[in-house]
Amino acid sequence: MKKKAILAVLMLSLLACGSLLARGAGESTADYPSRNISFVIPYSAGGGTDSLMRLLANAMEQDLGHSIVITNRAGGLGQVGLTELAAAKPDGYTIGALSNLDHILVLLTGENVSYGYDSFEYLGAINTTANVLYANDNNTGFKTVDDVIAYAKDHPGELTVAISGKTHIAEIALFEQAAGIDLTTVMQGSGNDSLASVLGGHVDMALMDKNFVAQVQGMGVTPIVSFSADHISPIEELPTLKDLGYDVATETYRVVVAPKGTPEEICQKLSDCIERVSSDPAFQERMAGMSENYRYLDADAVKARLDQDYAMVEELLKAVPDAFN
Question: Do 123 and 271 form a contact (C-beta atoms < 8 A)?
């Protein structure tokens, strides 16, 4: 009888342990988070996405009371890191970030992509930034978009534009489509390479980050137009393409995401945390010190904006199938 009693107790103990393991050692959505969180950044350390997301992660871990451990998984416009994130257990203990246009371009034009648009829960975004079209004064004398378009219509394909990435290909293609013009893009290794090319007059124009505006002052290069949806710092006075009647807005924003299937309660906790910490004026001041413009989008708003961007690029590829060839 004693042996049977002991066996019964052991069986109950094993069942209890199994139950605890199945639930993550006693974890529940109500207790979340009860341990450290892994944060996958699909870009190299030190870049714009990495720097901004590290700032956010630091604020979130103070708010949540547990460490957020950053892991950089760079490669393929974010594809390497997002492949890992999409395959992670959807329990809230692995989250990550993506850049909107990179994400969409991988999904629509990438090779061997193992995840889809619906492989993630989109939790929120906190920033906006945009590129600007710059013109070399000696080569062109352009001061306005009308100048660019008028010349390009009379000289199809003659104007050269330095670009530095696949997203820039999409932006220039959208501009060409909206304005009915043909430009010649010249791929560079980085924004700094594009800057050197346009400053040196090796190209007529360049599409570069808004923060290059300060660097080109007095150097024979004129900022022409912003590709942002509205007016942002430090280019508040610069017209946008939308201002001028061209339906092109290709601003960049970084989105915090979790694997598909992460419990709704946990997603809501994370979204609320992102909103809470990013609304702090001190946090926004630190963002400004990184030349980042604060703009919060909650889970619904960021998904709606991503839907718009996805449709925009999808329509571009239908109209110009060889845009990225």
Answer: yes
Q: Give one DSSP letter per residue of 249-268, joined into a string.
A: ---B-EEEEEETT--HHHHH
Query: For residues 179 and 317, what is the distance between their CA atoms, to the nearest angstrom?
Result: 17
Residue where the block lists tokens 């609320």: 272
Residue 137 neighbours by CB under 8 Å, 6+ apart: 220, 221, 222
The vertex-57 CA angle with 108 and 20, nearest 5°, equals 90
**Burial (CB count <10 Å: 0-12, 13-18, 19+), residue 103:** buried
Please write down the HEC assignment for all residues of 127-193.
Answer: EEECEEEEEECCCCCCCCHHHHHHHHHHCCCCCEEEECCHHHHHHHHHHHHHHCCCCEEEECCCHHH
Half-sphere exposure of 314 (CA within 13 A, CB side): 10
Whole-number Cα distances in Å, 10 to 3, 23, 25, 108, 127: 11, 20, 18, 55, 55
Instruction: Determine contact, residues 92/259, Cβ cutoff 8 Å.
Output: no
Query: Which run of H or of E encompasses 290?
Result: none
Q: pTM of the predicted model, to two decimals?
A: 0.88
pLDDT digits (tens, 9 = 90+) for 47-101: 999 999 999 999 999 999 999 999 999 999 999 999 999 999 999 999 999 999 9
